[in-house]
Amino acid sequence: MIKIAVTGAAGRMGGRIITAVKETEGVELTGAVERAGHPLIGQDAGSVAGCGPLGVPILDSLDGALADADVLIDFTFPEVTLRNAEVCARLGKKLVTGSTGFTSEQREQMKRHAEAVPVVMAPNMSVGVNVLLTVVEAAAAALGDGFDPEISEIHHRMKVDAPSGTALALGRAVAAGLQRDFDSSKRLAREGIVGTRTDGEIGIVALRGGDVVGDHTVVFAGMGERLELTHRAHSRDCLARGAVRAGIWLASQPVGRYSMRDVLGL
């Protein structure tokens, strides 16, 4: 039995992960943590998640929540994830994180933590999205420079980073397929008289509104035809199930930093 702890246990994503753990054979919830001062500290994590009592109280100490755990599943923010990764490295606990918005420096810090414990780090834990990444790279390679790649994404109004980590990952997949450098090719915004589109651009636009979980579309626009590849998340359950799947896979892996494509064998 693989033992899992969850951060943000009283939040929307934390609750879906806890429910997914309960519904998945071979895993059990042994720890749940929230920020200090949260009003639900001490409450049963399963009851808070809406999946019934699990006998696991929500704690305000990550060390305490990890005491009996093999793997921590973390969906927070880069600064918090880095602190959590440091604790995991110190305690020898494996880490799955779906946090987004990391800077290049923060990614390097995560890479160093992955030298101490195994880490799955992915901007999107959805199985469908990670299959899309593979398809997009293959499509870009097959279509070549004759098609202009543009990426659009829309998320709920509370999302704080833009473009989404998934949109950036899709951009990198396009760049890999076209054998381009993503950082010099990306075009994150257009406004005013910007001139005609250059052949080397990979455009990305972010939309925010309502309670949209997350939609991503990659457009390859050619002369006389257009190919569109889209993934739509109907609920956070796809992210939660993917995170639990990653936790199960990671439990048997050696030290290193992994992606969801590693988890899925893509």
Task: Describe, in plain words, how this protein is organized in 3D.
With about 270 residues, the protein is α/β, with parallel strands linked by helices. It folds into two domains: about 1-120 and about 235-265, NAD(P)-binding Rossmann-like Domain (Rossmann fold, 3-Layer(aba) Sandwich), CATH 3.40.50.720; about 125-235, Dihydrodipicolinate Reductase, domain 2. It has ten helices and twelve strands. The strands form two sheets. A seven-stranded parallel sheet has the order 3-2-1-4-5-6-12, with helices on both faces. A five-stranded mixed sheet has the order 8-9-7-10-11. Helix 1 (about 10-25) crosses helix 9. It is elongated.
Tell me the span between the first and last alpha carbons: 26 Å
Q: Order of strands side by side in the largest beta sheet?
A: 3-2-1-4-5-6-12
Give the integer mean of the pLDDT values. 96
Radius of gyration over C-alpha positions, nearest whole angstrom: 19 Å
The CATH architecture of the largest domain is 3-Layer(aba) Sandwich
Strand content: 15-25%
Q: What is the count of distinct domains? A: 2
Describe the structure using short key phrases.
single chain; 266 residues; alpha/beta; Rossmann fold; Dihydrodipicolinate Reductase, domain 2; 2 domains; 7-stranded parallel sheet; 5-stranded mixed sheet; 10 helices
